[in-house]
Amino acid sequence: MEIISAIAVLRETLKGRQPVAFVPTMGNLHAGHIALVEQARRQGRCVVVSIFVNPLQFGPGEDLANYPRTLEEDCRRLQAAGADIVFTPSVQELFPAPQQFQVEPPAIAGELCGAYRPGHFRGVATIVLKLLNIVQPDCAVFGKKDYQQLHIIRAMVRELNVPVEIVAGETVRAEDGLALSSRNGYLSPAERAEAPRLQRQLAQVKDAVEAGQQDFAALESAAAADLAGHGWQVDYISLRNAATLQHAQPGDTALVVLGAARLGKTRLIDNLECASN
Amino acid sequence: MEIISAIAVLRETLKGRQPVAFVPTMGNLHAGHIALVEQARRQGRCVVVSIFVNPLQFGPGEDLANYPRTLEEDCRRLQAAGADIVFTPSVQELFPAPQQFQVEPPAIAGELCGAYRPGHFRGVATIVLKLLNIVQPDCAVFGKKDYQQLHIIRAMVRELNVPVEIVAGETVRAEDGLALSSRNGYLSPAERAEAPRLQRQLAQVKDAVEAGQQDFAALESAAAADLAGHGWQVDYISLRNAATLQHAQPGDTALVVLGAARLGKTRLIDNLECASN
After folding, report:
1. Where does (R)-pantoate bind (chains A, B) (predicted)?
2. Which of A40, A66, A102, B74 has its Cβ near the most Cβ atoms within 10 Å?
3. Any domain includes B180
4. What crossing angle do the helices spanning A216-229 and A197-210 adopt, rounded to 10°?
């Protein structure tokens, strides 16, 4: 496995190694990332994983400075998972001058997590486009855990005609149902014990929808109230059309319930797809 | 020469034909475009020319509906110039749904022509990125006649890491100095006779700068006043740093004087690079 931090070296190294499958990450890898790498392994001849904590997608007061950086351990896990190349650019390599061109995503980027993290998805779209242009992969794998991000990247690739196939990876969960996330490491033991409630509430919404319940607002409110009653600060619990991420309407068949809520200082997100009738 | 209007067919056709040199146009081709095609011919094994009148870059009240469309004659000229592929997508092919993702250029896109055509360079940047993603050329040729456009595209490619070399083509002029432009066809005979004054005024500024004159504002004002005195409505005459397009400062060595002005209903632009000491 090669570890490369220069764009020019990466491009040179990738010549003739197509098809390339790409997994962009911010490092601090867990089993969820590794599942994406294994999925990439099945897609491409050469698997490239990037590790880059992207300043563009962090807002003021967010955890950019404290975001866990564990490069050595990450590389050990990536080697075991069969990655071929780890791309670890510096901030200077990706932003030799302040980034002036941005990819401006549509209004959906201002809803859900975007309503609580202004500019976040602009930063995500911009860095992902840069990385896709650098790696030029045949396919790129993004986890469903960041469902809104996956949606926005799919739309960006379609609308900007980026020549890449976007592949979705299933969310990996701890035994108690908590979706794996680098930010789980911020949780105290008591918060960690409480954390699976988010997924349980989303599962209740999913079960109700799949049982035919159509009062979506009532389901969202009930889940949010339960979380708030157990000490969470709820950003949103929202049922959406899985294809458009617009608010779910009776008659939609493929839905997704998404949630974001904070336990202490840690913001957790999760989602579950639901099949309505 | 092949004429292709479907993205999928173009991509399939281009397989194995690298290096590709690309010339994006809006059609109604003149000798200036043909010079870019000949320049591309010297760069790539396969020369692709696109013809697409991009609605994103026209403002309300501009000449989108009336912009001259002369596909048959364009193809005849392109064949003679040695183009291999003409890409003529429909609006539906490039925008199957309303374009929601836009490339947002930096503040310089709101100056010069951008101050008179709000959103123009966002539309240019977005369509050029789409076309570059579709054609995936090794190099793309843009004329210096649209100097601000060339500047913005160079910056976009650099900042978004688009894997393409941008090549600049020299402006082609009529014998009387008028820069060739599709919009020259809008001019009445009397306007056509008057039109070279724009270039003559820019040349006077250039000569003065190269002779050591450093009162740039006086030079700009004098040129604008002369044009206004001959019936032009002047949008701007502006001396800029050629590398940054920021206002020229004494001590800058590579400058460019840019002008935009209207004769009747026709808006003409032009520019000349100057070497100061």
Report:
1. 57, 149
2. A40
3. no
4. 160
The amino acid present at A59, given as its one-letter code, is: G
Residue B182 lies in a domain: no
- Chain B contacts of A106, Cβ < 8 Å? 100-101
pLDDT in tens, B80-105: 999 999 999 999 999 999 999 999 99
Task: Judge if A165 and A192 occupy the same domain.
Answer: no
Give B168: exposed, middle or buried? Use CB within 10 Å, 0-12, 13-18, 19+.
middle
Angle formed at CA A200 by CA A194 and CA A203, multiple of 5 degrees: 165
How many Cβ contacts (< 8 angstroms) between chains A and B? 70
Verify whether the Cβ–Cβ distance A163 to B102 is below 8 Å: no
The mean pLDDT of chain B is 97
In a domain, A38, yes or no: yes
Residue B116 has pLDDT above 80, yes or no: yes
CA distance B33 to B51: 11
pLDDT digits (tens, 9 = 90+) for B29-47: 999 999 999 999 999 789 9
- DSSP character for B65? T
Beta-carbon contacts of A75 under 8 Å, excluding residues fewer than 6 positions away, are A1, A3, A86
Q: Which two tokens stand for residue A122?
A: 């602009």
Cβ B2 vs Cβ B101: under 8 Å: no
For residues A97 and A208, membership in a common domain is answered with no
Q: What pLDDT, in 10s, does the model give residues A39-56?
A: 999 997 899 999 999 999
Decide if B12 touches A, using CB distance below 8 A: no
pLDDT tens digits along B53-76 = 999 999 999 999 999 999 999 999
Contact state of A101 with B161 under an 8 Å Cβ cutoff:
no
Distance in angstroms (rounded) separating the CA atoms of residues A251 and A239: 13
Whichever domain contains A121, its CATH number is 3.40.50.620
In a domain, A175, yes or no: no
- With beta carbons less than 8 A apart as the criterion, state whether B152 and B108 touch: yes
Which pLDDT tens digit goes with each residue over A104-128?
A: 999 999 999 999 999 999 999 999 9
How far, in Å, CA of A46 to CA of A137, rounded? 9
Which residue of chain A comes nearest to B131, CA vs CA? Answer: A161
